[in-house]
Write a structure and sequence with these properties.
With about 260 residues, this protein is an alpha/beta fold. It has eleven helices and ten strands. The structure holds 4-(N,N-dimethylamino)cinnamoyl-COA. The site of 4-(N,N-dimethylamino)cinnamoyl-COA has 25 residues, from helix 2, helix 3 and strand 6.
């Protein structure tokens, strides 16, 4: 059985966490499978977007508590490092990633969703960082990525109370971009992924990189990076094709170079 299934729909990949009996809880094996899938996708030159979701009634109900229970501090640090590596591999993919949160996204599940470029939620989704209920704290980026997504006030409330929120609240605070009826979630995420797949691939990848790296740079450096990258994409065939197609009133045929 594959813990993280990979399916291709044209230029779009769907990654599905597939451990539904444990609500897709993230144990070592699942995190290793996720890291391997991200590495596999990073090598796929024809890929244009990724949708990440969960099988069954959860997106992921967090790190695997049963497995974590017996960890020594050294093992816990190594477990945290593995999660960080897997999520960073996903976050740094050149193509956009959309988390389609179908149900519980708690603890490590919420952190995984935040490692994707943005989140679409089912009306059934529940988000939260319940680690303090267990006497631990977020270990897969919850104190860093969540702050950027929702701001410091909401990040504090979620991490320090451990209380979950529903999809409409996640939408209101900017954790989720859109909320869908459960049966419309994947269709919605795939439609957006397909929209992205039709754009200039180099421009999309470079814009994604700037949006990610610009966050860590000060304003002047981020602006300089944007100017240099703007110049760089003028060297692509896609830029020429995109502008020519517009002026000739036809659809562009992008090649990704
Ligand atoms: N881990 C392991 N198993 C889990 C699980 C989890 N996080 N969540 C659910 N399951 C399992 C349940 O044990 C149950 O298994 P069986 O009893 O059937 O064998 C099965 O999934 C179905 O769950 P329930 O029977 O509990 O289902 P309910 O509908 O009643 O409740 C629930 C759903 C999501 C409200 C509930 O399962 C729940 O509260 N789950 C735990 C949620 C949670 O606390 N998540 C945060 C986990 S902590 C770190 C590294 C990482 C992290 C922290 C530190 N370092 C190394 C420093 C990250 C931490 C976390 O993510």
């Amino acid at each position: 059985m594959e813990l993280v299934r990979l399916e291709r729909r044209g230029a779009v990949a769907i990654l599905t966490l597939d451990r539904p009996d444990a609500l897709n809880a993230l144990d070592r094996a699942t995190l290793e499978a996720l890291r391997a899938r991200a590495a596999q996708l990073a090598e796929d030159a024809a890929l244009r977007a990724v949708v990440v979701t969960g099988e069954g009634r959860a997106f992921a109900a967090g790190a695997d508590i049963a497995e974590m229970r017996g960890l020594t501090p050294t093992q816990a640090e190594s477990f945290s490092r593995l999660g960080h590596e897997a999520f960073a591999a996903l976050e740094s993919l050149a193509v956009p990633t959309i988390a389609a949160v179908n149900g519980y996204a708690l603890g490590g599940g919420c952190e995984l969703a935040c490692a994707c470029d943005w989140i679409y939620a089912s009306e059934k989704a529940r988000f939260g960082q319940p680690e303090v209920n267990l006497g631990i704290l977020p270990g897969f980026g919850g104190t860093s990525r969540l702050v950027r997504r929702v701001g410091i006030g909401w990040a504090r409330e979620l991490v320090l109370t451990g209380a979950p929120i529903k999809a409409d609240e996640a939408l209101r605070i900017g954790l989720a971009n859109r909320v869908f009826a459960p049966e419309a979630l994947m269709e919605g995420a795939l439609a957006t992924a397909q929209t992205i797949a039709e754009k200039g691939p180099v421009a999309v990848a470079q814009a994604k990189r700037l949006l990610l790296e610009g966050q860590d740079a000060d304003g002047r450096v981020a602006n300089a990076l944007e100017q240099a990258t703007f110049g760089l994409v003028f060297s692509t065939r896609d830029r020429e094709e995109g502008m020519t197609a517009f002026l000739e009133k036809r659809d562009p045929a992008f090649e990704g170079r």
